[in-house]
Amino acid sequence: MSRSARGKLFLAAGLAALAGLAGCSRDKVESAPVPPPVPVRVAQVAKVNIPILAQEIGTGEAYSSVQVKPLVAGTLTGLFFKEGDFVHKGQMLATIDSRPYQTALDQATGTLAKDDAQAKFDAANAERYQKLYQAGIVPRDQYEQLVSQAESAKALVQADQAAVEATKLQLSYCKIYSPIDGKTGALQLWVGNLAKANDVSVLVTINQVTPLYVDFAVPQDLLARVRQALEQGRPRATAALQTDPEHPETGYLDFIDNSVDQTTGTIKLKAVFPNARHRLWPGQFVNVELQLGEQAGALVVPSQAVQTSQQGAYVWVVKKDGTADMQPVKTAQQVQGRTVITAGLEPGQTVVTDGELRLVPGSRVDVRASL
Predict the structure, then answer these.
(1) C-alpha–C-alpha distance, residues 107 and 171, integer Å
(2) Measured between alpha carbons, how far is 241 from 253 in angstroms, rounded to an integer?
(3) Percent composition of the chain: helix, strand, coil (DSSP 3-state, to 5)
(4) Contacts of 47 (CB under 8 A, 6+ apart)
(5) Cα 180–183–184 angle (5° rounding)?
(6) Do residues 62 and 165 touch, judged by C-beta distance below 8 A?
C-alpha cells in the first residue's frame, strides 16, 4: 500500500472516531436529568397602613426610690421584713431602742408640769397686785415686776411644751415605717448594730417598681415628631425583654427631657409601664418601640423574605412561569415581623419566605404553603 493510501485510511479512521465521540456527548446531554422543583413557602407583597416606630434600647428605672435612714441614734432592736420583700406604705420596718427617748420625754413632761404650775401662781399673784395697785396700796414698780415675772413664766411654759413635742418626735423616730410601696434591697444594718442619725450608710433602699419607668433616647431629628405625638395624647410604647421579645409590656410616653445631649445628638425620654407582673426591673435593658404615627399605603413583606448580600438587600421573586429570580430591593423599618420596602417590588408580587437556600436564578419552585 502506498504512503498516500495509508494517510487516507488514517484520516477516515480519525473522522469516524470524532463522530463517535460527538454522538456520545450529544446522547449524554440529551439524557441529563432535569432538576426537580425547589419546595418553598411564599407570601404576597402587601400594601397596608403601618405604625411609625422609634426603636431603641432602654433601661428600667424605679418609679421612685427611697433610702431609708435612721433619724435618731440608738441600738437597732428589731427588723420586720426580709431583704427583697415587697413592702407597703406605712408598714413597720424596724425599731430602735426607745428607752433613752422615753426617759427624755418623761423628764420634759415633768418640767412642763412644774413650770406650768409656777406660771399659774405668778399669773394669779399679778392679778391680785393689779387690784392693789389700782387701789394705790402698792407702788407701780412692784406691780410691773410681778407682771413681768408672770409673763416670763408663761413663756417658759411655751418653751417646755415645744421641748415635749420635740422629744415626742424623737421617740416616734424609734419606729421606722416604709414611706412607699416597693421592693426592698440589701440590708446595711442588722439587729444589735448601733444606728446613727442621718448617717452616710442607709438601713435599706426601697424601689417602687409598679409602675416603672423605662429610659431611652432618640435622635434629635425625631424631636418634633415626638412632641407632636405627645401633644395629641399619650404615645403608645412597648418594652420587650431581650430574652422574650414576643411578649412585650405596654405603656405610654410620659416625659421628654428639657435639652438635647450635645455629645450624642439625642434626647432622653421616659415611658411609664404598669408592670403589674414585675417583668421589668430597674437597671434592666429592654427593647423599646415608641409609636409616633402611622404610614399609609406602605409596601411590606415578611421580614424573613429579605436577604442580604454584598450588593445589598434582595428577595426571591416567584414569576408567573413558576421560576424564581433575585430582585434587589431597598428597605426601611421593620415593624411587627414585616419589613417596609421602598423600592424594587410592586403590590401583589410573590416572594419566597422559606426554602431560598436551595435557589439559583431561574430555579423552578414548588409552592408548598403561603403566609
Answers:
(1) 13
(2) 18
(3) 30, 40, 25
(4) 297, 298, 299, 300, 347
(5) 95
(6) no
21-54 residue pLDDT tens: 445 445 444 555 778 899 999 999 999 988 888 9
Hey, what's the cell of 76? Answer: 437597732
Single pTM value for the model: 0.71
Provide the residue count of the chain.
371
pLDDT tens figures, 128-155: 888 888 888 888 888 888 889 999 999 9
CB 214 within 8 A of CB 61: yes
Q: Are 279 and 245 in contact (CB under 8 A)?
A: no
Separation CA 350–CA 335 (nearest Å): 20
3-state SS assignment for residue 196: coil
Determine the Cα–Cα distance for residues 103 and 219; give it in Å rounded to an integer.
62
In the 8-state DSSP scheme, what is residue 355? -
In sequence order, what DSSP letters do the residues of 326-350 get, joined into one string?
A: EEE-EEEEEETTEEEEEES--TT-E
Residues 6+ apart with CB under 8 A from 55: 287, 288, 289, 290, 333
